[in-house]
Write the structure tokens for this entry.
Amino acid sequence: MDSLLELIRSLFRLLGRLTEFLLDRFMELNFFDRLLIICVIPSFAAVMLPVGKFYIFENWYTLNNPLAIYLIGISIVIFASFIIRPLYRMLIRVLCAGAYLLNLLYIHFSDGFARTEYELSAGFYLNIAVPILIAAFSALSYYAYGREN
């Protein structure tokens, strides 16, 4: 029983050290990069929320975004791009977010979500806002702090 308690204590100590390390790394980032990391949270919410809904047979049905998983990929790119030079970092992030946004708008305007009439929901607007914020914070990070690195 004592060895089990010691194992649990050591796991919590490890988790505490990991949390402290990640918090220290987060605090070392510039302001816009911090906002960019915080944008990862709504990107996960945008994946889960429906983009539209329609009423048929006395029930509401929701539509999911087929591109939403790419928003998770963009979040991974955000974290992975911290190891490259600031200009390329900004370009990669802006291009990924722009490509996602253009594809989302293309699907919407070409009636790719559904062939029936549907109402847009909050998830659609969140799927538009997150890539715009990612591109804006990436560009602001580069123009405000990028030349220093």
Q: What stands out?
A: Residues 2-28 form the longest helix (27 residues). The CA atoms of residues 67 and 104 lie 7 Å apart. Helices lie at 2-28, 31-38, 40-48, 68-80, 86-109, 122-145.
